[in-house]
Structures are given as C-alpha cells and as structure tokens.
Amino acid sequence: MKPISPCIAIAAMLALLPGFAFAALYSPSVGANIATNGIVGQWVTQPNGPYILNLTRNDRTAGVWTDYGMNKAGAWITDVRPGQGQYFGGYVIAKSRWVDQLTIYTPEAALNDWVHLLFSVRLEGHLEAYEDDNFGSSAHVNYGMSLNHDGSWVTQPSYGRGIAPTPNSTAGGHVELDVDEILFGEIAIRNGHTFNLISTLSVNPESDGFGPPGVGWAESSFSNSAEWLGGSVWVNGAQASSFIITSASGYDYGPRSPQNNMPEPASLALLGVGLAALRFRSRHG
After folding, report:
1. Within a domain: residue 245?
2. Of these four, 87, 124, 180, 268, which has the most CB atoms within 10 Å of its CB?
3. DSSP assignments along the chain, one per residue
C-alpha cells in the first residue's frame, strides 16, 4: 500500500476540525434578460453550470457559461429587421456567477495565524457598437469578485468598461475595443480557515431607436473569460514553499501547470461555435 502524502493527511485532518471545512456549497449559475421596444423582459436563470443559455427575441441573443474557475458570457443586439422597415430599442444582459469554498493551509504558519492568498484572473473579450443617425448603441462589461464568511480583501480585482460611438453620427458611428486584462487579487485569511470566493461576470449591449428605421447593433463578447490563472500562499511577505488550497468543488486553485490546462468540455466548444455564428449573423444579416 502506498503511504499517504503529507498534504492529503493534512487536508483530511482539516476536514475533521470543526469550523475549518464546511459542507455547504453554492452551485454556479447563469442568467440572461432580454427586453425590446419598451417591453421589460423576464430574467431567466439556470443553476448548476456548466450550462449554455441562449435566448432570442427580436434579434437579441445571449449565451452564458459558468464553472468553478471560469466565467463566460456573450450577448448581441441587432436593432433593425432588413426589408421590414421596423426598428427596435432594447438591451441584453448576460451574467455568469460562481461561488466556491476554499481552505488555505501551510505548515509554515501556525493554525489561525494570518496568511495571504495571492492570485490572478484573466479577463479577455471584445466590445463593439455601431449606429446611424437614428440609433444610439453601447456595449458594456463588468467583472468583480467578493468574499463571504472569513477572509478580507487586501487587493480586490474588478473591471468595468463601456463604449459608445459619437451620438447621432450621420456617417454611421462605430467603435470597438479589445479587452485583455490580468487582474490581481490578494486575500488575508487565517491559516486553516475556509471562506467563500464569489466571481461574477456581466455583459450588457444596448441600442435605442430614435425615429425612422435605421441600423444599430452592439455586442459584448467575453467567451474566453474570466479565467483563474492560479494562486499561491504567502507568510509574512514571503511565498510559502509548501501549502495546499482545497476547494469544496474540487477545482484546483493552486499554481498553474501543464496538468491544469485540460481540454475544455464539449459544451464549452459548442458555446464558442454558437456565439461565433451569432456574431457573424449580427454583422452580415
């Protein structure tokens, strides 16, 4: 019989200690809301990711995917039906959210002593909006992380951005922005304690018709984000050479390695293909 590794033995010990490892865990969830022509849409949510949610209403589409360590969301809005002389105003909101419980332990600090979890997250995507003199369009993205229970932020990662063409541009205003950001976070936590880490990605394209039929469309596409890039534990300003980061979901929040870069599930590949097709349709339809 193979001997039990010290990390497994420590993790098992922590799981038995009251107040250190909790059983409750919130499932990932996705949601989308589509409204048009002054009508408020219904917010639709789906728990237990990963899951693909596609909604279509008057050329408005949202696709959302979530799992521990990853949020993905894309939404498109096209505000005219070619050849029908109709125009619409409205918005699309797509939101991906996951909550996981992490326990941090290093033998280089006593139980209950303060240690720090340092990590990074990559946010990658695209914002784009187009309008003529009868439309106003914009595209937005917001990302943030929050805590529950033990732990406190030293550096809290967040990002928010919105773009819009010059209003009422008779030449057909157009603006786009590629986003590729590495966000850094730092959490102070007592050694051996458990905390909830919450990750939320929200995208929101909007477009409003002002008068006669025209053309306006916008997209917020972050189908490659937000991705956990790995974490490490620090004690008194120095990186611990030995530590474990356990999670209720089983996701590996530790340093990245070739073993961490596993192929994405088929459902994620399907989402990428579907959203790419929708993007092409919104531009060329």
Report:
1. yes
2. 87
3. -PPPPHHHHHHHHHHHSTTT-----PPPEEEEEEEETTBPPPPEEEESSS--EEEESSSEEEEEEEETTEEEEEEEEE-EETTTTEE--EEEEEEEEEEEEEEEE-TTS-TTSEEEEEEEEEEEEEEEEEE-TTEEEEEEEEEEEEEEES-EEEE--EEEEEE-PPTT-TTTEEEEEEEEEEEEEEEEEETT-EEEEEEEEEEEEEEEE-SSS--EEEEEEETT--EEEEEEEEETTEE-SS-EEEETT----S---TTT-PPPPHHHHHHHHHHHHHHHHHHH-
